[in-house]
Amino acid sequence: MPAINGSTSEGPTSDPAQLWRAWLSETERQLNGFFGEVLGTEEFARLSGNFVDGYAVVQRALNQSMERYLNTFNLPTHSDVVELGERLANIEDRIASLENTVRNIAEASGMETTATVTPLRPRRTRRPKTG
User: Domain end: 25, 55, 75, which one?
Assistant: First the structure.
C-alpha cells in the first residue's frame, strides 16, 4: 500500500529511473570490459591491419578503373584538375611578378603607376525592336 509521500513499501529499488540508471551503468561497464579485452588482442590488430590493406587495394583499383572510364569519354580526372590548378597558380604568380617588375620600372622612370582599366563589354549584336 502506498505511503502518504507517494513511495511504496518496496523501497527505493522500485524507482524505474533508478533501475534504468543501474542497468545502463552495468551494461556500459560490461561492454567496456568486453571491448577492452577484444580490441587489445594481437588477433584484432592483425585483422584490422588486413582490413585496411584490403580496403587500400580496393580503393586503388576503383580509382584506376574510374580514371580509365573518364579517359575513355575524354573527361578530366582528379589528377588532371589538380595539375591544371597548379599550372594556373604558377601562371598567376608569374603575372604578379611581371606586374611588380613593370611597376618598379615605371616608378624608377618617374611614370605614373596607377592605370585605369576599362572594363570590356560584349558587343550588342541584337537591336531592340522598334515600333
Answer: 75
Nearest 5°: the CA angle 121, 100, 82 is 70
For 45-62, what is each residue's pLDDT tens digit? 999 999 999 999 999 999
Together in a domain, 26 and 71: yes
Please provide residue 118's backbone torsions phi and psi, each rounded to the nearest 5 degrees. Answer: -90, 120
Contact 85, 93 (CB under 8 A): no
Number of domains in the chain: 2
Sequence-ordered list of residues with C-beta below 8 angstroms from that of 9, at least 6 positions apart, any chain: 1, 2, 3
Same domain, 33 and 56: yes
In a domain, 115, yes or no: no
* Residue 2: predicted pLDDT: 47
Question: Alpha-carbon Rg of the chain, whole angstroms?
Answer: 37
DSSP three-state, residue 63: helix
